[in-house]
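Shipment paperwork, digital attachment
Item: protein structure file
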Amino acid sequence: MELAQSHSTLSNGAGTLPRQGRGRAWISGGTATRDPRAEIEIIREVEQELGMRTTAERLADRVATFQPRHRDERVTRAMNVVLALVALVIAAPVMLVVGILVKLTSPGPVFYTQERVGQDRRRGRAAPPGERRDHDLGGRLFTIYKFRSMRVDAELDGAVWAMKNDPRVTPIGRALRALRLDELPQLFNVLKGEMNIVGPRPERPCIFGDLRQEIREYPLRQLAKPGITGWAQVNHTYDTCVDDVRTKVKYDLEYLQQQGAWTDIKIMAMTVPVMLFRKSGW
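Attachment content:
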């Protein structure tokens, strides 16, 4: 029995046919037959290669062509300013009490500020003359405001993932985070035009840079202004790993494709049980 490699000339009983392939043919007595084990192996390899390539191509196409649902920016801005002002008036007594409790229960400032990545308005347009684009940070940077819920030395060794029963969280901070009251100062970010009440949560530049390397769709979240609450926040807990972020990115992109006044109102209403009953919070 002789082993013949690819590009064999196989007998079909009526003549010869050129046969190409990566597999092997077993020739016995002038008649060639394909080895079924080799055929199966070839099929599996081709399907795997094509499948991997197709998935990558689909993902690349989605990132390149993704567009959020259009909404009138002036109407959105007016709605957010009005709601933020009303919320500040209603929440003022609560914010005063929270500020006093934070100051009395742990050393350090009442408010916590941090640089975050905001909306990316450059995607899909040419850079105006003189605009610097040496470093793509993913969006416009801004300073976010929060009630301090952790010790002042919580990140001396750098940023780390949040965790359940995080020892860095102060006693009052644990309650604030569970009820999402630590986010109330971000109403001032809304008034400044840096955030909306509803939208994807903003991230720090250093973490943003890492996450967009891990999750290809991650920068698409920046096509809308970041928000105090969002579709991802009412459906998921705090991030503890990259897989949590991947899940939230899916929710964020769903929001971008359905964004509008009615969608925002629905998410705001869904935020109430998150705050009152600690749903999706720690």
